[in-house]
């Protein structure tokens, strides 16, 4: 009878232990899962033919925003147009109406899907940068069947180990019981079981999860020189360690924006805006990640680095050509239009965003002279769920010199979210004026000065009210500027963008379309007047690869 009780006790222990171990293994894997590094590029043309294997040739590696995300590559062919899209995506949600079935793979095996309106291949995988190397292979169930069988065998193998271990302990118990003069108490077996539970790693798993939740690993970044300072933060050039090579350690140059502890709200607002995957655009600063440095009591934003600096600095140092103006102005308008848009280039809905502090010092210049918008500390997501009271609480924000008349008066129409976009358009017009004032196509080019250059260096709101509201003043556009046909169109656009009536202003999308429609009337060649030397420690190729 005692032997039956012993067997019943141990079989119950075995079954319970097997279930608990399987649950703990699954829980541990979930808690220990780190965010993937994936290739993350816009839809790009490719030379991949849809057979064999090839590289996606995406130059941007991003940290996925969520631990559940996996790497995905999509290959499309419609007529003669062949493209590849590389992204992060949560496999719990459908992508283009498709369920990601192969995301546990270590390599990206492209599978053809029908009824997608074009020839369409998709793959997903769960290794760092695995969506860069693509394998176009015939679909086979063999690997999936093997994976299912292996997963199914895990609990059976665990059960077998427990049975063998139990038998071992039973033999020890039986031998001790037979040779001892007095019986062992049940406590001995409970203690043995307790040791087994400690050995399976349950305590260790709990500790690791705690470390991951409260002590997230920081990127290996070495700060270099300070390159900028604003109201809320300082910006540093920095080196991001990428790993060791035969020639030594390899670094990528990045920018690090550091917020003090008391500027947490500004850091969080900018982080939340940057974390929206739909913000990604060639004319918006490329965001890598955000970090909370608890020891230093600092908050970091890590982004791409652009050695040409901000637009104000660039215009101060350079006289530009008409071609340069066309590139700078058009890219600025496209960046603002993307922020304001309620849909992505693919037609998917996105929340419109207003910058609320557009000025030449909040715009960076890339190696190809296109602009990227940065500094979203005052940015506002125009979610339809925002109430009038919440919009009213946004306050009178921005830089006084670039504030629209209705912002200076605190009379924005809160019933219409388009009113916020119109304030951005006004500020953009002032920046376009700055760009135009330094273009050699206007004739004599004066030294750089900001809009309303006659007011003091850092004017207050009241000073700007006098210039903009009382005097209805705007920066001067001399008649000599409009002798050039391209400049004439730009000046007409500027005039419509800084109209005193917000509803009379053009939209950013309209401005972008005007630049796209403009030709180069006099075919000016010159970028010779605006060439700038790139710092010797950063190659142009490396920088432009980060910027893409």
Q: How would you portray this structure in words?
A:
This protein has helices spanning 2-32, 142-179, 187-199, 202-214, 264-274, 311-317, 322-340, 388-392, 405-408, 418-437, 461-470, 485-497, 508-517, 540-547; strands at 37-39, 41-45, 52-55, 61-63, 70-78, 81-89, 108-113, 119-125, 133-136, 221-229, 233-245, 248-260, 287-293, 298-304, 353-354, 363-365, 371-373, 380-381. It has a 7-stranded mixed beta sheet, with no helix packed on it. Strands 10-11-12-14-13 form a 5-stranded antiparallel beta sheet. The protein is 37% helix and 20% strand. β10 and β11 form a beta hairpin. The longest helix has 38 residues, at 142-179. The protein folds into 4 domains: 2-32 and 166-214, no CATH class; 37-139, CD59, CATH 2.10.60.10; 223-304, Phosphorylase Kinase, domain 1 (2-Layer Sandwich), CATH 3.30.200.20; 311-531, Transferase(Phosphotransferase), domain 1. α1 runs parallel beside α4 (202-214) and α10 (418-437) packs antiparallel against α12 (485-497). It starts with a helix and ends with a helix. It is of the alpha+beta class and 548 residues long.
């Amino acid at each position: 009878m005692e032997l039956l009780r012993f067997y019943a006790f141990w079989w119950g222990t075995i079954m319970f232990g097997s279930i608990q171990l399987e649950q703990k293994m699954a829980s541990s894997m979930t808690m220990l899962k780190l965010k993937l590094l994936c290739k993350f590029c816009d839809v790009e043309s490719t030379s991949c033919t849809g057979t064999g294997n090839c590289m996606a040739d995406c130059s941007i590696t991003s940290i996925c925003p969520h631990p559940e995300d996996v790497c995905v590559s999509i290959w499309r062919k419609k007529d003669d147009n062949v493209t590849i899209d590389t992204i992060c995506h949560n496999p719990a949600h459908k992508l283009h109406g498709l369920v990601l079935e192969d995301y546990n793979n270590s390599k990206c095996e492209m599978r053809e899907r029908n009824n997608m309106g074009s020839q369409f291949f998709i793959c997903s995988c769960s290794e760092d940068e695995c969506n860069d190397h693509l394998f176009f292979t015939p679909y086979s169930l063999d690997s999936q069947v093997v994976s299912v069988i292996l997963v199914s065998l895990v609990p059976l193998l665990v059960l077998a180990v427990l049975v063998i271990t139990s038998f071992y302990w039973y033999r020890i118990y039986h031998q001790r019981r037979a040779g001892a003069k007095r019986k062992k108490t049940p406590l001995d077996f409970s203690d043995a079981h307790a040791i087994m539970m400690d050995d399976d790693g349950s305590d260790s798993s709990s500790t690791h999860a705690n470390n991951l939740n409260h002590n997230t690993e920081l990127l290996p970044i070495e700060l270099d020189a300070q390159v900028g300072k604003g109201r809320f933060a300082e910006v540093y050039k920095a080196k991001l360690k990428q790993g060791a090579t035969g020639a030594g350690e390899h670094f990528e140059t990045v920018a690090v924006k550091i917020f003090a502890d008391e500027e947490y709200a500004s850091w969080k607002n900018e982080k939340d805006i940057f974390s929206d995957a739909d913000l990604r655009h060639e004319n918006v600063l490329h965001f890598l990640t955000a970090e909370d440095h608890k020891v230093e009591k600092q908050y970091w934003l890590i982004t791409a680095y652009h050695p040409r600096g901000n637009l104000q600095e660039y215009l101060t140092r350079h006289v530009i050509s008409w071609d340069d103006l066309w590139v700078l102005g058009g890219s600025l308008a496209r960046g603002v239009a993307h922020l304001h848009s309620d849909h992505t280039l693919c037609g998917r809905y996105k929340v419109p965003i207003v910058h609320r502090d557009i000025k030449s010092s909040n715009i960076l210049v890339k190696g190809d002279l296109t602009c990227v918008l940065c500094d979203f500390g005052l940015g506002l997501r125009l979610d339809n769920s925002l109430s009038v009271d919440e919009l009213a609480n946004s306050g009178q924000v921005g830089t006084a010199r670039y504030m629209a008349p209705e912002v200076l008066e605190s009379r924005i129409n809160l019933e219409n979210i388009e009113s916020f976009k119109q304030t951005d358009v006004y500020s953009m017009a002032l920046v376009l004026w700055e760009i135009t004032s330094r273009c050699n196509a206007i004739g004599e080019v004066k030294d750089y000065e900001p809009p309303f250059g006659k007011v003091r260096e850092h004017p207050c709101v009241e000073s700007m009210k006098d210039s903009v509201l009382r005097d209805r003043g705007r920066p001067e556009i001399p008649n000599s500027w409009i002798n050039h046909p391209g400049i004439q169109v730009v000046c007409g656009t500027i005039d419509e963008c800084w109209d005193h009536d917000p509803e009379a202003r053009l939209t950013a999308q309209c401005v972008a379309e005007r630049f796209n429609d403009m030709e180069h009337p006099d075919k000016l060649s010159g970028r010779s007047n605006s060439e700038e030397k790139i710092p010797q420690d950063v190659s142009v190729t490396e920088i432009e690869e980060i910027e893409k």
